[in-house]
Amino acid sequence: MKKLFIITDYKNNFGSKRDDIPYRSGMDKELLKRLFEQSNFDTSFLTFAEINALNIDFINVPVLYTCTEDFGYMYKSFIEDVVLGLELRGANLLPPFKFLRATNNKVFMEILRNTIPKELSGNLNSFVFGCYEEFINNLPPIEYPVIIKEPGGAKSKGVYLAHNFTVAKKIVKKISTTSNLKEDIKDWLRAKKHSGYARESIYRNKFVIQEFVNGLEYDYKVLIYGKKYYVLKRNNRPKDFRASGSGLFEFTEDIPVEILNYAEKLFNYYQVPNLSLDIAFKNNQCYLLEFQAVFFGSTTIVKSPFYFIKENTEWNVLHGKSILEEEFVNSIVCFLKN
Asked: What is the pLDDT of residue 153?
């Protein structure tokens, strides 16, 4: 049997699953182990803390890992350290470290999104900044309105719409504030003592400025597991520009074929076992709003009564409920075999 490692968090949880029992416990690990063994994988579970304590040869060994949404992303920072270390030790990370870096980090997600080749149409114009002063002093030509995003957050939390530069400045100041009275006083004294000293910014939380697609009433959440595509149509909140987290969703077979084709192109480009995409569609043009390849929500797959699959050149709808763990394992096994 081939070796495979699955890394859990400090609570011994792996992944994200809708309606899991107990609450927020993730996927069923025993089921995962059984399914992987049926595909000839000898599966071992480790925690992140155990990685450096054990003398294990990870070279070319498949390693699956989880992530968290802990407040402040402090434990997530530790996960990044360990996973990057595994990549340096030659592990076959599924997915690679860069996708973990982009999880709950919309600045790096935007950087990664902008690596998509030009032939993959739909890239929105965007800019990333590390502080308010960079936004003011290096302001590129931006056409308003624009979306402004905090680096973390889910379900549209920390996502704002600015109709002009004045509003944008107020939003950026609000979300980038890092003021600390004790440190600010120290820095003020440095400026008094040393002529020409440039004071530290008190607005050093990074953020994203992204082109706004006007006139959208909904977008699409697309989850891809191997060859299966699960699509959720998400309607905007009343009198709001945001669809993510609205709870106003529907499963419909009437999905523009352009959405499925675009999702397939992105999936082939990113070369990961499974993927979550937020796609907007307007005037026959697809726009990639956000994406995730680690620790994304599973409502779309767990609740969907059908999925799409491409046979030859045609997209077909197959009815039936899916089990998250089964589709997750199938996507990993299929990826490793190919």
From this structure: 77
The percent of residues in the chain predicted with pLDDT above 90, rounded, is 78
Say what the pTM is: 0.93
Place of tokens 């080749």: 117
Element (H, E) at 15: none
* pLDDT tens, residue by residue, 228-252: 999 999 988 777 676 666 677 899 9
- 3-state secondary structure (DSSP) of residue 195: coil
Rounded to 10°, the helix 29-38/324-337 angle is 40
Q: Do residues 287 and 280 touch, judged by C-beta distance below 8 A? A: yes
pLDDT in tens, 138-164: 777 788 999 999 998 776 788 999 999
Contact 303, 230 (CB under 8 A): no
In the chain, helix, strand, coil percent, each to 5? 30, 25, 40
Tokens found for residue 71: 């407040």
Residue owning tokens 């905007």:
236
Element (H, E) at 77: helix 74-88
Residue holding tokens 């990057």?
84
Eight-class DSSP state of 216: -
Asked whether the predicted pLDDT for residue 102 surpasses 70, the reply is yes
Cβ neighbour number for residue 109 with a 10 Å cutoff: 21
User: Rounded to an integer, what distance in angstroms lies between the CA atom of residue 91 and that of residue 236?
Assistant: 41
**In angstroms, how far is CA 52 from the centroid of its own chain?**
27
Cα–Cα distance measured from residue 27 to residue 171, given in angstroms and rounded to the nearest whole number = 38
The answer to whether 83 and 100 are in contact (CB under 8 A) is: yes
Report the C-alpha gap between 243 and 330 in whole angstroms: 30
Q: How far apart are CA 295 and CA 300, in angstroms?
A: 14
pLDDT (mean) for 313-325: 97
